Amino acid sequence: MVEHGDIRVVHRGGSKINFRKPVITNDSRFLLCASGESVKVFSTSTEECIHDLRGHTDLVTGVLIKPSNHLQAFSCSADGTVRLWDFTDGILIKVRLLPSIVVCPLFQLVAVHLPQSGDQLVEARELSAVLTGISSNPAATVFGRGGEYIASANGLQLEVYFFKKQKAYRFSLKEDNKKGGKNTFTCVACHPNDDCIATGHEDGKIRLWRNFNHKKEYTYSTLHWHHSAVSSLSTNLLSGGIESVLVQWRYNQENQRDFLPRLGAAITHIAVSPDGALYCTSHSDNKITIIQSCVKVSAVIQGLVKGESVGTDLMIDPRSKSLVLNGKPGHLQFYSLQRDKLLYNLDIVQQEYIHESGLQQFEVVKAAFDASGNWLATVEERKQKGAELELNLKLWAFDEQTQSFVLNTTISAPHEAQITGMCFSHATDSQTTMLVSTSKDGHFKAWQLAAQSQTDADEGPSWSCDFVGAYHGLVPECCSFSADGSLLAVSFQEVVTVWSPASWELLTTLSQPPKAIRNLCFGRLSCSKYLLGTTDSNLLCCWNLLTCSLEWSTSMDVSLLLADPLSENMAAFCCQAGLFVFKPSEPRPLFSQKAVCSGMVTRAVFAPREEMLESCEESSQWLNRSQLYFLTQYMVNNTNRSAVKEKKSLVIDDSVAMTPFYLLLGKHRQQQQGGDDPQSGVSAERTPLPQGSVAIKELLQTPAHVLPSTSFLCSMFVQSLLISVTDSREESKHAEEEMESEKEEEDSEEEIESSRTRPEQQAAVGGGEAAESAAPAMTKAQVRELRRVKKLDHSWLAGLLDS
Amino acid sequence: MASFKPTKIQVYPKLGEKVTQDTLYWKNYKAPVQIKEFGAVTHIDFSPVAPHNFAVTAFTRVCWHLFVHIYGPFSQEPVKTFTRFKDTAYSGRFRSDGQLLVAGCEDSVVRLFDVGGKVALRMFRGHTKAVHVTDFTSDRYQILTGSDDYTCRLWDIPNSTELNTYQEHTDYIRCGVTSKLNRDLFITGSYDHTLKLFDARVDRSVMTMDHGQPVESLLLYPSEGLLVSAGGRYVKVWDLLKGGQPLVSLKNHHKTVTSLCLSTNGQRLLSASLDRHVKVYNTTNYKVVHNFDYAASILSLALAPDDESIVVGMTNSILSIKHRKSPEESKEISGQQRRRPSYRVFVKGKNYVPKQDDYLVSKPVKQHLAKYDKQLKKFNVSKALDTALETWTRHRKPEITVAVIKELDRRGTLNNALAGRDEQGLSQLLNFLIGNLVDPRFAPVLVTAAEMILDIYHSVIGQSPVVDRQLLRLQELLEREIDYQQDLLEVLGMLDTMFASALPRKEVPCSGASRSNGLAQGEASTSRAQLQAT
After folding, report:
1. Is the ipTM here above 0.85?
2. Residue A182: inside a domain, yes or no?
3. Residues B453-502: pLDDT tens digits?
4. C-alpha closest to that of B225 among B276, B175, B174, B283
5. Does A357 touch chain B (CB under 8 A)?
6. A20, A42, A174, A721: least surrounded by Cβ within 10 Å?
7. Is residue A465 within 8 angstroms of chain B, CB to CB?
8. CATH value at residue A76
9. Total domain count for chain A?
10. CATH tag, B26-326
11. Where does the pLDDT of residue A428 fall: very low under 50, low under 70, confident under 90, or very high at 90 and above?
């Protein structure tokens, strides 16, 4: 049974695909990679995600193709299970539970005997420890030469264990810090059919070990190209590191190398397909690159990139309706929420990225779209130790031909200090577009698109500073334009100043001591006369701009305040991840929930829905037009995992396709279940009437073999055409009407129209009525239908539902 | 694999004037023809009829140049010279039919010449001092003269008799102009700071305007509603129809304005001054739209009909003539640029349109990188800096050098690139710093580089006299710059005080309500409406 007003948080994607080494299937057609709590199957040629293998309840920590059947794959997870999948069909075959291991400080490599069994759920009990004290990095442990031995490196020690001899050899290196060299092992790879182990080291060296089955007579040779740690090695002697250059060494001709430079970000894993035709590298920016063996990039699978901080807030591109935030260093990413796919990266900084640790890079820290999506403003900054802050404000115009943003104006050093806030004027009808930026240097500046001058016609219009404002030398924090663009509110610590952008007059000041303003937001639509602000002293204030006075205030520790661009609703996130949705004009919140997720909500955004929902539920009505997405940051297994989550009302209508069959049957199911408790059953019914009549038309056009029996459909169909005056009369007429033929259908079309409008009126009036009309949305037609349905025999349907 | 992104060369806004329609128009003149005269050129007048000859009055003679459209030695040599002057000649002017020429003289005699002849046709005697002003009236039969004896007179040409004498000015009369529409009206300007409008039908002036400075030049608009006068550093425009009301006062020169001139269509006003500039004003808003620089103080200025040439006479007795470029000529230059062989080689075969059954082999577009970019791509940082410091780049495109230094700094390798240089390399680097360090566009980058250079090379100071001298120069430069900045800050402070005292203080309404009862309310549900109580 569905509970009403149940709004639930759904994980929508954006999980890491570079957490573990991806696996290429034997036929090189698919790529499997661990992604959060699921395993994703990508096509290597089209870059599309084909299957999402869901089932694990915790982070997936490894994927492996089953050696005996190359159409099946194992995955292991932090939830203590190993699952076997058929990845071409996306079906779970087996689940094996591993006994929970006592938490110990050292990682142990254990051999697990997988019992052969027909059951889907198998518990493996036989465990035997092979090596103790191995590195937690899976790249530092590898099987060699068809499983004859296993090599594992940790710290300064390499350990090789031969299965047949049941003997382990240990080789140690000296810790060498003289020339900045560090001999710590980072990764290990074994030659597929030769006794040779390659190890990567912290100082960029690669050592090739031979004769390691003797304790004393082992030899190694050293290869050196990388300038910092080798993070990944593969069996074909491919190596990669932070330089983001893939180096292919020739075995036995080590001074010959092939390079694939500028892969975008530091290489974290390298995988090779079994036939050696494809390589794939995963990168630190949540990207998998598929490379053909002739060292040519053939495809790029890009996930949502999350840098150290989401400096640019979450934004929605008004044109593509995609989520926009800063991604790769110096880039802005456009991420499709519907398809969980990165659309494209916009290069903001346009500089060669130097892959070197400890280098200060340009970061995109602020971005803003104007209402129509024609202009994008970005701020990039670079703070170097001992040097001045480098700031650039860039304005991008949308180019219809290329369907992307083109740089229009670069303003270097727009402010003397960091920019704290930026927003465009919202007015869509006005001719001039205006941008306001506030900075820590105590000024806010208004930028305007200058008219095209006559002489330099080859240059288009460009942006220039229109006004510089300050208020008593205080530092401005937030800025916000009213919905019609006629007012600009800028908060200067604890004072909110309201300016007129037309004349740049200071109209009024509002203040709410004693703490600084944290967020500032104008109301929308009918609430546009309200200005909302939150302060550091846990106060949510609402000022009425007509009277210039405080309308109401409440004590609430709000960390984030958002306005839905399509309705009057505002959402406020509290520090303990509580969520309140309210209208500024109404005293009661529309919706409130404590702890929507674990951890603090750092960023959130309202995204408009593609099609409006028609939910009459009061508590979920605010989600009709837009969805709320928020970004959390919580710790799982010592890895930072980011996830874009969505608040979504749990309505069946959402999850099941709207077919005519569903409309009829789905309704029944609810009514049947609610049969014992008519009250709840009545209110559960929320199939909207207007859609019903559309469905009737569809019903007549749907092929007969997909429909339920005619006797079942007929009565309901006819009933939906009825217009009732009173219940008693309707009852008596009932028999006659059932006999009516379908010829009269055309005639009654108009009547349906009129009956459709009625429930809405009733719903509007019936708000304050008593228990009898507890569900005001239910019309008389619906009541009648309900009674009819109760009389009908649904025994055949019950069996269908149970199965 | 992404391609290498080349170093971004910052585009700085062009300093100096903007390119406007006016600058394009007024720059479209050839290199000036310079003619050495025998003395300071005091007056130039164009003949109103074609071929527009012009009379140049210089020292004791009136020369007469032929204006031609074709280049040739003609314009270099005077076509005709009148030398029958005992002393310095002044104000040689053509009659409206271009047949007669009148000139005043230091010896107070006014002479009238036939353009074809050599000997004076008439001599008008009557003035007691030098005559600086001569002009024909619009009926072509009378002559107006103005003299240093404070009088101006009207003469009849056929009878060579004096018609009238006006003795109203109290100082030398140095300029005058007759109306082209009314034969009886003329205006004179004098060193007594006044402009007087005379009517020949009455015996005295009908209008007097005070210029405030000794008047040097006068000009009537073609409509004759507006009068322009130049005197001192000011150019003033008077509305004659409103009874001599001053309309605009322009102060764009910093020395005495000596000559005025109007472009043919009446849209632009030109003024020449002793400060060696000719300024062009827009006559609708009286803004300076263009500026010509000359080598010496300018005494006289004239513009040929259709602005075909600008003739300027200077105190160093040089006459400078600028001819307008013909349309073919200006077009030819741009055509030549387009036909450069390198471009032809570049497009060779590129504009071939493939036929329907052609098999197309696509080739990746080769990315062209500058030399320093190629070196940066290979991480040859020192070489890249050397390339950017090559003489041509360093002098002509300092922004490229600065951009490369900035890029190296961003890569964290500027220290490596700057280190390890010999005396020559270091002095080259220091030379560049001395030249560009105080440029506000480059200062943030170059200051970092300068600090690094000092850190790296402070141990070798004293080993090379060349480097030491340059370091001292750098130090001097910085000290001067610091003083300069301090002065600027002081001026800024003064301006701030002045503005603060000058602007009226505006009271911003501040809501008292929000102050009084902010914290009292606990819940949003109860706080509405109650808060209105102030």
Report:
1. no
2. no
3. 999 998 888 888 999 999 999 999 999 999 999 999 999 999 989 988 88
4. B283
5. no
6. A174
7. no
8. 2.40.10
9. 1
10. 2.130.10.10
11. low
